[in-house]
Design goal:
Elongation Factor Tu (Ef-tu), domain 3; mainly beta; 3 domains; Rossmann fold; about 15% helix; six-stranded antiparallel β-barrel
């Protein structure tokens, strides 16, 4: 679930009206909050098996709100429905007249899109340096484009930018998409940037706006979900892959492990498969990171086992 939900902007928590809020309900809600999903819809289903009782709906709603207040979940919308009969899915139906809110489809249609709710700082990890070779085309003799995906923010021709880790500054000469000048690019577009100055830049570097430079960090605190059968070993060196940049890392501390059933923070000496914990890593190379709650693209990373190149964990920077 952690992997699948990491790019979602809204989650639907499904509750059986006959059973109410279960341990699984609390677990999934906490995980959704943990991976930064900002909007939750709590769909209380099978209302047909609860005689479409408003009292049952209000009781479950109150129980969930009490839980949500304890774990810090804020943006929640509730809806009663019957998937079997189609009540409140697309059409309102005839059995829930006491509910005057929108249907599930109407909620989804007005939900805000990702990256639209607050201003994001421009982050452009360089994936590839494009130097096309065509001696017959004089326009390509000095062409040097930096290709990648805009992880956050926007960029346009003339903007002042800084290349990290060198710290050298330049301005954007062209923004291209598929070889065509587009003038301006936005989050999640895969583009090519051309700069006005010759700057030694390679894969793993990051281009940012000069007034939005992130700090270089060699120690990170993060929430980690461990995915490997072999437990996390304090004595081993792992590889942290953050955007297009890699750094060797050592586990400095396991601050606590989250018991997903009780939602309590418990001490831990190691992490087993599917464990979620707050940990501290020391890095061999600096990363240019943002807190995950501010920027998912530059706030997330994966942990790789160097011996077999398997992904063994995923992390969210605090």
């Amino acid at each position: 679930m952690v992997t699948a939900a990491s790019t979602a902007n809204l989650a639907i928590i499904l509750i059986d009206a006959r059973k109410g809020v279960l341990t699984q309900t609390r677990r999934h809600s906490k995980l959704a909050s943990l991976v930064g999903i900002p909007h939750l819809i709590v769909a209380i289903n099978k209302m047909d098996l609860a005689d479409y009782s408003q009292e049952t709906y209000e009781r479950i709603k109150g129980e969930y709100l009490e839980f949500a207040a304890k774990v810090g979940i804020e943006d929640i919308r509730f809806i009663p429905l019957s998937a079997l009969n189609g009540d409140m899915i697309v059409d309102r139906g005839d059995n829930l007249n006491w509910y005057d809110g929108p249907t599930l489809l109407e909620m989804l249609e007005v939900a805000p899109a990702a990256h639209t709710e607050h201003t994001e700082k421009f982050r452009f990890p360089v994936q590839y340096v494009c130097r096309p070779q065509d001696s017959a085309n004089p326009e390509l003799h000095d062409y040097r484009g930096f290709m990648g995906r805009v992880e956050a923010g926007s960029i346009k021709v003339g903007d002042a930018v800084t290349v990290l880790p060198s710290g050298r500054e330049s301005t954007v000469k062209a923004v291209q998409l598929g070889g065509v000048d587009i003038g301006e690019a936005f989050c999640e577009q895969s583009i090519t940037l051309l700069l006005a100055d010759e700057i030694d830049t390679s894969r793993g570097d990051m281009i940012v706006k000069s007034n939005e430079v992130p700090a270089a960090v060699k120690q990170i605190e993060a929430t980690v979900c461990w995915m490997a059968e072999a437990p996390m070993d304090r004595n081993r060196t792992y590889l942290i892959r953050h955007t297009t940049r890699d750094s060797k890392a050592k586990l400095a501390a396991i601050d606590h492990r989250l018991d997903v059933n009780t939602l309590e923070k418990v001490p831990a000496e190691k992490l087993a498969m599917n464990d979620i914990a707050q940990v501290t890593f020391k890095l061999a190379q600096p990363l240019f990171a943002d807190p995950y709650l501010e920027n998912r693209g530059t706030g997330a990373f994966i942990i790789i086992d160097e011996s077999n190149n398997n992904t063994v964990g995923a992390g969210m920077i605090l």
